[in-house]
Amino acid sequence: MRLSSSLIALVALAGQALALPFNELAERDTGLDVKLIPIGNTRVKAIITNNADHEMSFVKYNTLFDSSPVRKVQISKDGSIIPFSGIHLYYDIDNLPKEAYKTLAPGASAEAEFDIAETSDLSAGGSFKISAEGSIPVIDGQGTKPTSSIRFKANTLTMDIDGEMASKVASAIPELNKRTRVDNQSCTGQYAQLLQGGLRTCVTYAQRAAQAASGGNAQKFQEYFKTTDQQTRQNVARRFQAIAQECSSANQGRTIYFCRDVYGYCKGLSKEINR
Questions:
Q1: Which of 45, 175, 188, 210 is in the most buried spot, having the most CB atoms within 10 Å?
Q2: What residues form DSSP beta bridges with 32?
């Protein structure tokens, strides 16, 4: 896929205020094994296996087994990370539909195939490193809600990719109109009011976060960022300042806001799209 623009589109601004959907779940290192297999120029197969001695259901959203164009792998070339162009789903982990889960009996496996060129520009061709690691929320046994998450780290692939072929793969996220930041067709009336209110709140929170990062409680900064280095604090503060700047205008910047699901991936969830 060849990209011609760099922008971010956010759907459901409230999603920005959500923390990671499973950041309070207890983590463990055993129970699931994930393997990557190259099956084409830019196509990859993922296999997940239940290594536990009991039935387990895992959340598919934002994983290798999500049918939406979420970040499934990390791609690098010559030591540099290739930018991702797709979506990230925000969800209420206590109220997921049945289709959000995949159930595996002990020793059972599930497979999924995807094309990494749908969400990354690989038109340069050559040798790429493909890796995947993270945490997957799970339900052990006959439970109804995830009570823990399992950390995994898949094998790393080295794929020699034909750039011309990769450039012909259709993007998972269609090109967006860059001339406006607000979709005026859907963001009208109450939606427009909520959006403007959300933007103002974003500015306030980001400015306060920037102040706290640069000159706030050092112990609290250490808790979240594992350092009190002044340069790191300034870097974090600058990122929050950039967020405040981005939220300060509905007519300029790199962000386009929609008040409807223009891509059909939400499934009743909030969604963030990275371009």
A1: 210
A2: 50
Q: Is residue 234 part of a domain?
A: yes
Strand locations in the chain (E): 8-11, 26-28, 32-38, 43-50, 56-59, 74-77, 80-81, 87-90, 101-104, 109-115, 126-131, 133-140, 148-153, 157-161, 255-258, 270-274
Residues 164, 185 within the same domain: no
Query: pLDDT tens track of the chain, all 275 residues?
Result: 433 322 233 332 223 333 344 557 899 999 999 999 999 999 999 999 999 999 999 999 999 999 999 999 999 999 999 999 888 888 888 888 889 999 999 999 999 999 999 999 999 999 999 999 999 999 998 888 898 999 999 999 999 999 999 999 998 876 655 445 677 777 888 888 888 898 899 999 999 999 999 999 999 898 888 899 999 999 999 999 999 998 888 777 777 788 877 777 776 555 555 55
The reported pTM is: 0.71
